[in-house]
Amino acid sequence: MLLSRTRAAYALAAVFLSAGCLLTGCAMPADPKGTLGNITGGTLRVGATESVSKSGDWVRLDPGSDPAGIEPDLVRSFADSRGAAVDWRSGSEQDLVSDLKHGDLDLVVGGFADDTPWSKDAGLTRPFAESTDERGKTVKHVMLVPHGENAFLLELDRHLLAQEVTP
Length: 167
Hints:
Layout: H1 2-24, H2 35-39, E1 43-48, E2 51-53, E3 56-59, H3 70-81, E4 85-90, H4 93-101, E5 107-113, E6 123-124, E7 129-132, E8 138-145, H5 150-162
Parallel strand pairs: 1-4, 1-5
Antiparallel strand pairs: 2-3, 5-8, 6-8, 7-8
């Protein structure tokens, strides 16, 4: 008898929690700063730092040109899927991560690995490609996003995982 009352109480609690989440939207990822909404039909502000290696041209910066390489191509594809233009800014990793933290950028690319020391300052996409460094170590590549912009991160992850990336 006690067991069935406990199960009933858990079932009732689950119903109330589920209803509350549906009403408040807690089941949906949110963007406190509205990144996904801002870029859709708008502008995706992307920081790029050069990353060219034997494993591939992740980001190549040539004076007078937009960034080129594997990651800029992925960024353009994602922006196109959201009806967004891309505003490119180049700089050092430190400067770009600072701009990301302060809300001046939506995304930073530059051949980052999933063990990047910038993970304390930025959110990371899921690894979308692998390469091998000069020591033979496998590198799992990610992009940097603002902390907490979960709807944006989820959509970017979905897009990246649907792409076939070959370094």
